[in-house]
User: Fold this.
Amino acid sequence: MECHCADCQKAVGGGPAYIAMVNRADCTFSGELRGYDVIGDSGGTVTRFFCPNCGTPTHSELGKYPDKVVLKVGLFAPQEAAAPQRAIWTGSAPKWHTVAPGIPSFDKSPPPRG
Assistant:
């Protein structure tokens, strides 16, 4: 998924954040991580985690979805990262950024999946 919300754009230095939402029960993290809270465009709390040694963003936790973790796909080798399947918060995208053709696109948060 690609997220174009204003907060993600700030967190990644411009453009969208490429993310994968997964079940928290399926994730484990090792090593030291630090986090900080922000209020996302949805109005909910987002805790963004990163490595304090190199600054790499690792994942986010959304107050709205306590059983999920939002992984940053940059953690994976480029060949392993799946292409985005949808784009969210495109109403906040810079005019110069195009969304991949053929994927569902939402101006704000999409409706929940089944």
